[in-house]
Amino acid sequence: MSTQLRTAITELKQYYIDKLVHAGVFKQSDRQIYSFTLTELEGLCRKIQQ
Q1: I want to staple 40 with a disulfide (CB 3.0 to 4.6 A). Which of 14, 24, 36, 48 is the partner?
Q2: d(Cα 29, Cα 12) in Å, to the nearest integer?
């Protein structure tokens, strides 16, 4: 995987993690959230927006 793609995925995952933490779904200290895939994080964000 190219470095640019890996960086983009990491940044997008962090964006969704920040949204979930801000919404109160997770705490920043929760290690579990960092093991989620990008697809899982996107799904969780969609659920909280509904």
Answers
A1: 36
A2: 19
